[in-house]
Design goal:
Length: 408
Amino acid sequence: MLSPQQIKEIRNDFPILKTKIYGKPFVYLDNAATTQKPKCVIDEVSNFYANYNSNIHRGVHFLSQRATAKYEEARGIVQKFINAKSFEEVIFTRGATESINLIAATFGDMRVKEGDEVLISHLEHHANIVPWQILCSRKKAKLVVVPIDNNGDVKLEELVKLISDRTKIVSITHISNSLGTINPIKQIIDIVHKHNIPIIIDAAQSVQHLKIDVQELDCDFLVASGHKLYAPTGIGFMYAKKSLLDSMPPYQTGGDMILSVAFTKTIFNDLPYKFEAGTPDIAGAIGIGKAINYIQDIGLDEIYEYEKHLLEYATESLKKIKQLKIVGTAKEKASVISFILNSIHPHDIGTMLDMEGVAVRTGHHCSEPIMRRFSIDATTRASFAFYNTEEEIDVLNKALYKVLKLFA
Ligand code: PLP
């Protein structure tokens, strides 16, 4: 596991962690919303704009070729990171949201007909609900939801029961952003594949915590966001099996996704460019490559072990507050703790924690159906990254006692 000395060195890589909030040390526990960026990523992005800013592909001049090479190098880094078979299977997008919209609008449109069903779980982020809802409404198909139990675990026996001849697509999260549940994703993929149904994995909350191997998982699609992976905002990626990408129409159209255009006919570009219309976020892609290199240098196994330890420490620490109730107690959890504290509104808790320098998220966390499932409107969510420390969790604990005292 990462030692305190290693964590100290890691913290030095993140300039923002030295910030003071109202004169107090900044305790950033909102990592499920977005992660902070190491200096090497900030420098890499800035280096692009300072030294070789240029549009990619088709440029014959030196800087354009350099930018193209770095952009494609980043694709290769993502490919290796998730162990995709070929670079053609990695499409840069704006993030998990755009990736799911892409899949629903192209693959979903091809596959789902009137009377068909799309299966999701009760654990989904809105990004993995609304695109399917819109597709189903357009196609007169049905969105079917696999329920969860009181701990926040997906009921696998219900998943098995709900799959039928009408099921055309299953789309499910790997890790819940609001409860932290880690779904047994390989088991779910195997269940779904027994019925020859394609499955999409929303890995927005997992690629930063767990090693992902898309070939071993055998998922059909996998989506993720750069900004939750220590990379810039506005960049992410979609993985899909090549055979599926070959069969899908393009999502957006225009420049870069074509081989040739005439007024009578357009020939689309090869993979992966067929799905990358227009000028992409070049600096963002280069940033994601750097961020992946950075976390791989630390080691994903080490990160997982340390974050697991932090989650256990935080769970024990928060359990000591008898007025606090943790929402989401799944068997396997990632670095997220959602909780309610007496009947104090989470926004009040968040505001008071902020005064103590502690940043958490409050609200429905873009998963309103989960809140309804637990008959609440909102929770306070503390979410951890490998640069967080036990001391920071102690600060949170102490600040929560202050909140209780004020609202007593
Ligand atoms: N899916 C999950 C599980 C998420 O947690 C998020 C963001 O919080 C998303 C999808 C959407 O990600 P983005 O807004 O980066 O596209």
